[in-house]
Amino acid sequence: xxLLKFSSEDCGTCHRMSHYDSKVAEELGFEFVSVMLxxxxxxxxxxxxxxxxxxxxxxxxxxTYLLVSxxxxxxxxxxxxxxxxxKGEFREKLxxxxxxxx
Length: 102
What we know:
four-stranded mixed sheet
C-alpha cells in the first residue's frame, strides 16, 4: 500500500507536514511517495491517480494524500486525507484508514 502526497513547493502547510508525514506513513507500514506539482516527471507518473479522485481537481486540499494499491499500474484508491493537520491528528486519521483496510 502506498501513500501518495500531492503538494506544491509554494504551500507552507505542505512543507510543515513534510517534517513528519513520511515518517508516520512508514511507521504504519506504508510506502510513501511525495509528488510535487513542480516535479513534472513524478506528477505525470501519478497524475492518473489524482485525476481518478479529482477529475477537475475541485475539492483537493493542500496537501492531498491518497492511499493507493498498485499506483503505477492498475491502481485502486482506498482512502484520502487532505489539508493541514498536526502530527497526532495525521497519525490518527492515517491509522483509521489502515484499520478500514482490514
